[in-house]
């Protein structure tokens, strides 16, 4: 079981990085891709590392949850201010 998971998880990380690169205009899609990358890295750590690293894995999950909540808070503030979640609307000057 662990052999195919050690092959799949780096592919998941690479796919999530390419999704961030391709969907860089919308903040929600970038946040979802970053969350997928964090989860793939955690799965890879669970498969590769021993059980003595379980506290480090819990800390990584906590940081992933904090990253998701901060990203959603920024997206909510941006959608209330600008009316959308497109990142190119941040650089426009509205005088």
Automatic annotation (TrEMBL):
One of its GO terms (cellular component) is membrane. The keyword Mitochondrion applies. It is found in: Membrane. It is a multi-pass membrane protein. Keywords: Membrane, Mitochondrion, NAD, Translocase, Transmembrane, Transmembrane helix. The keyword Ion transport does not apply. Its main location: membrane. The chain crosses the membrane at residues 6-22, 29-49, 55-78. Belongs to the complex I subunit 4L family. This is NADH-ubiquinone oxidoreductase chain 4L. It comes from Platynereis dumerilii (Dumeril's clam worm).
